[in-house]
Amino acid sequence: MRKRLDNANIVDPLADVRLLVGEVVGFSLTDFVLNGTRAVSGEELNRIEAMVSRRAAGEPVHRILGHREFYGLDLLLSSGTLEPRPDTEVLVDALLPHLQHIAKTTGRAEILDMGIGTGAICLALLSQCPQAVGVGSDIARDAMATAQKNAELHGLSSRFRTVESNWFDKITGCFDIIVSNPPYIRTDIIETLDREVRNFDPLLALDGGNDGLVPYRVIAEKAGPFLRDSGLIGVEIGYDQKIDVTEIFAQNGYRCLEAFRDYGGNDRALVFCR
Known about the structure:
By secondary structure, this protein is an alpha/beta fold. It has helices spanning 2-7, 13-25, 29-34, 42-56, 61-65, 89-106, 120-128, 141-153, 195-198, 214-222, 242-250; strands at residues 67-70, 73-76, 109-114, 132-138, 160-164, 175-180, 227-236, 255-261, 267-273. The strands form 2 sheets. A 7-stranded mixed β-sheet has the order 5-4-3-6-7-9-8, sandwiched between helices. Helix 7 (120-128) links the parallel strand 3 (109-114) and strand 4. The longest helix is centred in the middle third of the chain and has 18 residues, at 89-106. The N and C termini lie far apart (54 Å).
């Protein structure tokens, strides 16, 4: 099976095979060392071979598994959600101290996560701050349903709800933190993306318009009435968008409070205040 994935030009075939086999037989990576001689049944072998076939065809391993870990939470995936990546954890790290400070000062903190997807960002923040409540908005009902399931799975549903909204159209109330990992890929380069992204991530979560900046303009222009005076806006950005996104927010009365790089050293998250 490893050789089959290797022949399909999968980057790390051994790791992927172990993840797929582990999912079927209930093994952790440690179990492969401690109990590596455990035989698989015929039914298990059929399931594993079907998964390996999907992986060889380019489907991302975590989409095959149907879930992925993010900030300590095991999150369900669906066709309408982006697969949460480790680099997005940088945005959670950027906002968490501010969220905790607000909650400590006022006894409560309210988050709006726009383009909720799996719920990764908002649920990670809620899991780390018991005084916080969150609203997740999206135009994809599949994403909202998945985020709600993830909230229930991790005991956060009493502090989390979803709203079907095209950006701020159906949003009500004011928030301490508005956060988004919006679509930021230029329309003309989507076809050049890696096949695992191009063929399996939802287009709505990728396409940021002709220059990749359309969602940032919407957020910067329309967030004002929904953000408390001392509130913050946190966004994930593409590796080459820091200057452009900062200028967009500056034109709308915001100052870049903090900028963060991801694990590869690329610009990844910006935090703005009024």
